[in-house]
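Teaching assistant's notes for section 4

Start the section by putting this record on the projector. Ask students to predict, before seeing the second block, whether Cytochrome c oxidase subunit 2 will look compact or extended. Collect guesses on the board.
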Amino acid sequence: MSTWANLGLQDSASPLMEQLIFFHDHALLILVMITVLVGYLMFMLFFNSYINRFLLHGQLIEMIWTILPAIILLFIALPSLRLLYLLDEINEPSVTLKSIGHQWYWSYEYSDFNNIEFDSYMIPTNELATDGFRLLDVDNRVVLPMNSQIRILVTAADVIHSWTIPALGVKVDGTPGRLNQTNFFINRPGLFYGQCSEMCGANHSFMPIVIESVPVNYFIKWISNNMNS
Ligand code: CUA
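Reveal the predicted structure now:
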C-alpha cells in the first residue's frame, strides 16, 4: 500500500505491474530528455543576436525536426502497444473471482467453488482496530492464492464503479449490464489495498478493496472452510 511521502508508484506485486513500472520509467526518461533539450533551446533564444536577412526557408532542417520527433514517439508507442496486448492476455486461469460494485460496497462471488459469495464493506473509523488502516480496511477480505493465474470478472449493480488495485496493476470498470474481464498473477504474499476509482456517488471514497494473498494450500483451506458453512 501507499504510505507517507510516497509520490511514485507502489511496489509491484505482479509481473504486469512490474512491466507497467518499467514503461513508466522509460516514458519519463524520454520526457525529461525532451524537456531538457527544448528548455535549453528556448533559454538560449533569449541571448541570440544573430540575424540572416536572406533566410527564407530551410527544407533540410525542417525535414529533420519533423521526422526526428516522429521516430522518438515510436519508441514510446511500440512498448506501449506491447504492454496493452500483454495486459489483455489470459493464460489458463486457475481461479475466477467475480466482483460486483454497489453503492457503496463491493460484493464477491467465487463461482468455481460452490458459489461462495459475500459482501465487503469498509470498516468505519469508530470501529477500527488500533492496527487497522483508516478508510482502507474492510470487514471481509478477498482471499486469493499467490503464484496462480487469477481471472477477475467485474460488473456493477447500480452505477459505474471501478475495481482498482495499484500494486497489481489492475483497474477495471464495473458497468451495469456489462461483464468486464481482466487477469493477474500475484507473486508474493501480503495485503494489497485498492479503492473504487469511478465517481460513483456520495460514498465513493468509502468502498475500498483488500486482497489477502496467501499460499495455495492456505487458500484451499480457506475455500473449504467457507464451503461447509
Ligand atoms: Cu464505487 Cu466510486
